[in-house]
Design goal:
Strand order of the largest sheet: 3-2-1-4-5-7-6
CATH topology: Rossmann fold
Number of domains: 1
Radius of gyration: 18 Å
Shape: globular
CATH architecture: 3-Layer(aba) Sandwich
Strand content: 25-35%
Number of helices: 7
Pfam family, one: Methyltransf_11
CATH class: Alpha Beta
Number of strands: 7
CATH superfamily: Vaccinia Virus protein VP39
Largest sheet: 7 strands, mixed
Helix content: 25-40%
GO molecular function: S-adenosylmethionine-dependent methyltransferase activity
Protein name: Methyltransferase domain-containing protein
Distance between the termini: 39 Å
Organism: Deinococcus detaillensis
Keywords: Methyltransferase, Transferase
Order of helices and strands: HHEHEEEHEHHEHE
């Protein structure tokens, strides 16, 4: 299990749901028969969760280091013909690719007209109280701001998913370790929140970025 998956498991326990899978699937509202491509799928949990919910359409996971059942590939050069999918997902991955603008263009290319491109990143208030302890003097440009700038010329709709959580001292220590940080023992609970920002772009014109 990756460090990200272990952190998600901790946050899922705190939020009493599968984070970020359940909130994401609630925000998508995709037809049950939609052909979906998950780009940078990691361990493939998102589409597996969707399959467990009875999704009957084509589900393809792509990753540079594919697991069994996944396709090998990079976001900047998708190994698919144009206009193949009803939805393309870039979930917490766009800032980790070499060329984010190229990755967006490729995801757009493989969408059918009427399809949806969904980009999700952690918002600026995600674990804000924790980060105030960990990096009190830092002025960080968060993923939310970077993606908003990147999508300046794109016709997107934004959805914010915010969930309150209460971090115990043990949770704070566990999160710090997962980020490679060392914090003194807090000795009290810490109110905080989870935030995921979802950018939804609908392909109404086939040549928007071409």
């Amino acid at each position: 299990m990756s460090e990200l998956s272990r952190r998600d498991a901790r946050l899922s326990r705190l939020a009493a749901l599968a984070w970020p899978l359940d909130p994401l699937l609630g925000a998508f509202a995709l037809p049950n028969t939609a052909a979906i491509l998950d780009i940078g799928a990691g361990e493939g949990q998102l589409l597996e969760r969707l399959r467990q919910r009875g999704h009957s359409g084509l589900l393809i996971s792509l990753d540079p280091v594919p697991r069994p059942g996944q396709i090998a590939g990079h976001a900047e050069n998708l190994p698919f013909p144009s206009a193949q999918f009803n939805a393309a997902l870039l979930i917490r991955v766009l800032l980790h690719v070499t060329d984010p603008a190229r990755a967006l263009a490729e995801a757009w290319r493989v969408l059918k007209v009427g399809g949806q491109l969904m980009v999700a990143v952690q918002g600026s208030q995600h674990l804000a109280s924790f980060w105030a302890l960990a990096e009190p003097a830092a002025e960080r440009l968060g993923a939310e701001e970077v993606i908003t700038r990147l999508l300046t010329d794109w016709p997107f709709q934004r959805t914010d998913i915010v969930l309150p959580v209460l971090l115990t001292s043990q949770d704070v220590q566990g999160l710090a370790e997962s980020y490679g940080l060392s914090l003194p023992v807090l000795g009290r609970d810490l109110p905080d929140q989870l935030q995921l920002v979802v950018f939804n772009l609908k392909k109404s014109l086939p040549s928007f970025v071409e």
